[in-house]
Write a structure and sequence with these properties.
- The chain has 187 residues and is mainly alpha-helical.
- Helices cover 66% and strands 7% of the residues.
- The protein contains five helices and two strands.
- A two-stranded parallel ribbon has the order 1-2.
- Helix 5 links the parallel strand 1 and strand 2.
């Protein structure tokens, strides 16, 4: 059941990330030219929207290449967010390089900077919120992976303490198997 849920969660992740990246480019355009003063539109919104399709695909590939669509049950939030910002920075670097090589300097650098900050920021907020939701459900006993601990030594005890202390991981120790009864301990 968890594997099916993980596959569904990954699909939702990819679709929502794509929607966020695509929609933040027109939002950045609007912020740059309609909220900030002294903006002269040299490239119409329609060309930004076409560029947004390519940026969205590129961002999704970069996120997938950095492992952001795998299960993050054992990945710390700080590491996930740093990879997310790295993927956004790589996409922006590729975009700026492409625009430089194509001699297409009419795109607003301010709009692209706002897009970078806005898309990476919204994607980060989405992932933080998703983590909090999953943490809540795991605290309630849903979406847990059940483990059986083999052994009763020092390492097995340390593993049990780690599983019990870090409930965000979503593991639940159901029991243990020990070679000798004298070495056994309570769950």
């Amino acid at each position: 059941m968890i594997k099916e849920n993980q596959a569904l969660l990954n699909r939702i992740h990819i679709l929502s990330d794509g929607a966020i990246v695509y929609l933040t480019l027109p939002a950045a355009f609007w912020i740059r030219f309609y909220i900030l003063p002294d903006g002269i539109i040299t490239v119409p919104l329609s060309r930004y929207l076409i560029l947004g399709v390519f940026l969205t695909v590129l961002q999704l590939f970069a996120c997938a290449a950095l492992g952001l669509y795998r299960s993050f049950r054992r990945t710390r939030l700080r590491r996930e967010l740093s990879r997310l910002w790295l993927s956004s920075a790589l996409v922006m670097a590729l975009l700026l390089r492409f625009l430089f090589v194509q001699h297409d300097e009419h795109y607003s650098r301010g709009t692209l900077a706002i897009f970078f900050l806005l898309s990476a920021g919204v994607l980060s907020c989405k992932r933080i919120l998703l983590r909090k939701i999953l943490h809540y459900f795991r605290q309630e006993g849903y979406n847990l992976k059940h483990v059986l601990i083999l052994g009763s030594g020092r390492m097995a005890r340390a593993y049990l303490e780690k599983v019990q202390s870090d409930r965000e991981l979503g593991y639940h120790a159901d029991g243990y198997v020990a070679a000798r009864q004298a070495e056994a301990w309570e769950l």
